[in-house]
Amino acid sequence: MREAITGVRAGRTGAGTGTALHVIAHHRDPSGELLDVRTATTELHNVLRPTVAVSWFVSFAARALYRHPQWRQRLRYGDGNLLRAFAHEVRRLFPFVPVLAARARHDLDWDGHHLPAGGLVILDVHGTNHDPRYWPNPDTFDPDRFVGHDPDPYTLIPQGGGDRTTGTGVPARTSPSSCSPVPCTP
């Protein structure tokens, strides 16, 4: 991404006028300066990530409807509860990533483990979303498991854990089985 931004600015990389890459590479802050490369790269990521996530979701929703045609009938009339349950199950069974990793911002003692600032934390997204302690028949496509209630945000983690309303990211409070400190040096 960094190379794309710098390449467009230097004229080495073509980007059609009006494309996200072109607009972001040439965007100026309120003082008239080009965004620094790191900020421009982050902004480009912020456009691409949801685009990829939606494409991923639509592909796997289509797969689920193909493999489970009874859900086509059930969803036909737009019942919000069924649509939500179907979406949750697609996201649970086919999470956007298998694992997420982050560095601890500060020393952390959690669930009997000490993690120093800068230590690596890995969130097992696929494992948590398929853990039989939380999901009976975890490899079975079953949207009915979500009908009538919202999922626990600490056991359904298709995009990571944490409380999105407070801005905490991966991992915030997750189940002990899903998050493990990995010894390493910063």
Describe the 3D structure.
With 186 residues, the protein is of the alpha+beta class. It has two domains: 1-67, no CATH class; 96-186, no CATH class. 38% of the residues lie in helices and 10% in strands. It contains six helices and five strands, in the order H-H-H-H-H-E-E-E-E-H-E. The protein has helices at 2-10, 20-25, 37-67, 70-75, 80-93, 125-129, and strands spanning 100-103, 108-110, 113-115, 120-123, 179-182. A three-stranded antiparallel sheet has the order 1-4-5, with no helix packed on it. Strands 2-3 form a two-stranded antiparallel sheet. A hairpin with a 2-residue loop joins strand 2 and strand 3. The two termini are 24 Å apart. Mean pLDDT is 85; it is low at 168-186.
How are the SSEs placed, and which strands pair?
Elements: H1 2-10, H2 20-25, H3 37-67, H4 70-75, H5 80-93, E1 100-103, E2 108-110, E3 113-115, E4 120-123, H6 125-129, E5 179-182
Antiparallel strand pairs: 1-4, 2-3, 4-5
Helix pairs in contact: 3-5
